[in-house]
Structure formats: structure tokens, C-alpha cells
Amino acid sequence: MVTKEPVGQLVRRWREHRRRSQLDVAVAANLSTRHLSYIETGRATPSRNMIERLCDELEVPLRERNAWYLAAGFAPVYPERSLADLGAARAAVDAVLTGHEPYPALAVDARWELLTANRAATAFLADLPPALCTPAVNVLRATLHPDGLSRRIRNLAQWRGHVLRRIRRQFARTATEGLAELLAEIESYPVPAGHGDDEPVNDLAVPLLLATDFGDLSLLYTTTVFGSPRDVTLDEIAIETFFPADPATAELLRTLAARAG
Predict the structure, then answer these.
(1) Residue 162 — φ and ψ, nearest 5°?
(2) b/e 56-66 (16+ beta carbons within 10 angstroms → b)
(3) Burial, 223: exposed, middle or buried (Cβ in 10 Å; 0-12, 13-18, 19+)?
(4) How far apart are CA 83 and CA 151, in angstroms?
(5) pLDDT in tens, 172-217
(6) Closest Cα to residue 210, out of 153, 131, 138?
(7) Rounded distance, CA 122 to CA 114, Å?
(8) How far is Cα 84 from Cα 122, in angstroms, rounded to an integer?
(9) What DSSP designation does 153 have?
(10) Which residues, including other chains, have CB under 8 Å from residue 218's CB and lie 6 or more apart?
(11) Which residue from 235, 209, 202, 186 is spatially nearest to 55, judged by alpha carbons?
């Protein structure tokens, strides 16, 4: 990771991103307002301990914390391994995905690129056009692009609105690079008429209503993240698990799994 921004600019940018005053952050991180001002203006360089305190207070993701350390002249603290090298954490991801069969489940990174999926989820992505699979499958693009799964989503307007709100909240929390561009791209996708509206069709949560060749599915989802990560990759992994919202969906998913093998 290479950053051209001085560490003080990174501190200020994240403080303003969190909409917090210098006084508020200084008091919470146990330093003087003057010292924080000196850091932000480049008149003082924060120590490793000070960087960690400020990052904790501003809830800075691990990838960005490494950028802070580099900008301050220190080596990055947090490793970034591939998914295959995460050891017990990778085994935990696989256990969740496999154990969730016959219901769909998949793991994505902070930019919503597909890392791995169970057989049920893979089946829904099998007929994507090549353009949506290169160089990697972006789950949001594959879901909402006019040539993707959106053709099968019965409540497309409602689901699209929910997804857009979710991405905005994620960007506000993480400021992940590339997420704003992905949001703008998805916002530009047209919503065909006759694909539902913004009225809820389930009194528990917004479902994903998906048409298949064997019948319609109504799915609810949960998101799982790792607690107390110390690796950049692990910090950015989210496991999306889908559950049937009604008995008919549960039965159809079991039938589809049996047909597949």
C-alpha cells in the first residue's frame, strides 16, 4: 500500500468523515486539542501508539490504519493474507457456507467481490453473462445489472432501494475505495416498470423475491462478520446467508438441492 497523503491529512479527513470536532476527538483519545491540531497541520508526527488511539476512536478500518502508519513513516501493522491463507478463519467461512446448505450463502469482500459461495448460491450465479464475471464477480453488479439477476427479481424496485441504502451506510462507515463508484454505477441502472414498488411485502424484513424455472423464492438474509480481526482481508469479509421467508421457499430450495445432486 502506498499513500501520498501526509498522516495529518488522513487524520483530518477521517475526523471530518465521522463529523467530529477536534475537541471531541482530542478528549476521547486523551490528548490536547493543540496536539491534535499540530498533527493535522503537519507540525507534529503521531507516534505508533497515538495512531492506534486515534484510529480506535475514529473507527478506522484496518486497511486505512496501515495507510496511516506508512504516512507517518512506520511499517504497516496489520497483515493482508489471501483468503486461502487465513487458516482457522477460512475453515470457519467454509463451515458456515457448507452448513447453510441447501440455502444460499456466500462470502464477499468490502467491495462486494465474490470470494467464495456454497453450491446453492453458485447455482443462482451460473447463468450470468461473461461480462459480469470478468475479472471477478461483483455480487451487487451481478444482482442489479439489467443483464444480471435483476431479470428474475420480482420486487426489483424495492430490493434495489434497500441495496442502495445499505451501500450508502457502508460507505459512510468504511469509506472503502471504489465503493462510491460502484454506488454511482448501480444508481444509473434503469428500473423496468412492473417490478414492484417500495411498499413492504413482508412484515418482518425486506425479502428478495426471486423467480426460478421451478417456482418463486422469497428470501431473507443475515450478515456475519468476524469479531476483533487483526488481518486486513478478514476485517473486510462478510458472509451473506439467505433463509427461506416461507415454507414454500424452504421446500423448493430442498428440491433444487436434491436435483443438483
Answers:
(1) -65, -45
(2) ebbebbbbbbb
(3) exposed
(4) 31
(5) 999 999 999 999 999 999 876 655 454 555 667 899 999 999 999 9
(6) 153
(7) 10
(8) 19
(9) B
(10) 202, 207, 208, 209, 210, 244, 245, 246, 248, 249
(11) 235
Q: Beta-carbon neighbour count of residue 112 at 10 Å? A: 23
Burial zone of 131 (CB within 10 Å; 0-12 exposed, 13-18 middle, 19+ buried): exposed
CB atoms near residue 116 (< 10 Å): 18
Instruction: Give the gyration radius of the chain's Cα atoms.
Output: 21
Other Cβ atoms within 10 Å of 98 Cβ, number: 11
Tell me which residue has cell 453488479: 141
DSSP 146: T
**Single-letter code of the amino acid located at 252:** L
CB 109 within 8 A of CB 236: yes
Question: Contact 252/217 with Cβ under 8 angstroms?
Answer: yes
211: β partners: 216
pLDDT digits (tens, 9 = 90+) for 206-221: 999 999 999 999 999 9
Residue 92 per-residue DSSP state? H
* Residue 210, SS3 per DSSP: strand
